[in-house]
Amino acid sequence: MLKLNQVSAQYNILTGYVKAVDKVDFEVRKNEIFGIAGESGCGKSTLLKVMYDLINYPLEIASGSVEVHATDRKGLPVIYRNGEIHKSWWKDISYVPQGAMHVMNPVTRVRNQFFDTISKFHGVKNKKTLEHEITEYLRELELPPDVLKAYPHQLSGGMRQRVLIALATFLHPSIVLADEPTTALDVVVQRGILTMLSQVQKKLKNSMVIVSHDMGVHYQITNRMGIMYAGQMIEVGPTDRIFNEPQHPYTKMLINALPRIGDNSQKEGIPGTPPSLKNPPAGCRFAARCPHATELCRLVEPDRVNVGEGHYASCHLLN
């Protein structure tokens, strides 16, 4: 469905390059929800933009390729690569950006935002027929059709997010990318958004990629997940294995820092700070913060090690 081959991306700034994504290599399978987790600034959102081919200066792809496997209008298989993926926007791959209020046009009613998007990427249809189809789809997602008459500022944060998800999935894309879909929402609304995403995925039987710094989001909704650190994907595996049998020291420390019901013990944070992505260190990028780091870790970048079916991590300790 979606494949990344040694993808590197960077921001071109006045004093050099910020290597936000470095040699990321993984695939998103058909009919699954794949999660991407990590600290703020680790490259999660940049990676999602690269996957969607939303490349605007100062962001640029330095190397590698992204492949979207889809079908054309005749039902024949077709592969879109970076530089071409925009041709498949909304029809084969769609994107739910972070911050619905800042994405939707504040002076346009929701109805017209549906019309504009669909006519641009799917051709012009009879407006009455299209509005009926949109209304029925909103009902399927348990959204009141009256939202079509509203301006974005008249909707709550949770309702705006639901509308954005409905807009991104209306054309039944085979891949949906969602960037921090629950950020800045209270826990009850977060639960509703996650339930909606799960229902849409089951209905369309498509693939989703969910970016979130909230490990609880991944535990609730994803089938597989990847852990990012300083621009690199350091561990990928089934979500239950990531939580129950984490292999990379960074992943272990993330899991150990999570609060648990009935556990009143003091949780420890991860000491230190991530390295600068403008001038990343040699070797393992987590070495300066890792309690198990050796001289080898500081000098040589670790290879990817398979630690189970569909589960791998990049760490010298696993060799």
UniProtKB/TrEMBL annotation:
ABC transporter domain sequence ranges: 2-255
CDD domains found in the cross-reference section: ABC_NikE_OppD_transporters (cd03257)
Entry keyword annotation includes Transport: yes
Pfam family of the protein (one): oligo_HPY
Source domain of life: Bacteria
GO BP annotations listed: peptide transport
Ranges annotated as spanning the membrane: none
Record InterPro entries: AAA+_ATPase (IPR003593), ABC_transporter-like_ATP-bd (IPR003439), ABC_transporter-like_CS (IPR017871), Oligopep_ABC_C (IPR013563), P-loop_NTPase (IPR027417)
Keywords, ordered alphabetically: ATP-binding, Nucleotide-binding, Transport
Any one GO molecular function term: ATP binding
NCBIfam families: oligo_HPY (TIGR01727)
Family indicated by similarity: Belongs to the ABC transporter superfamily.
Protein name per the record: ABC transporter ATP-binding protein
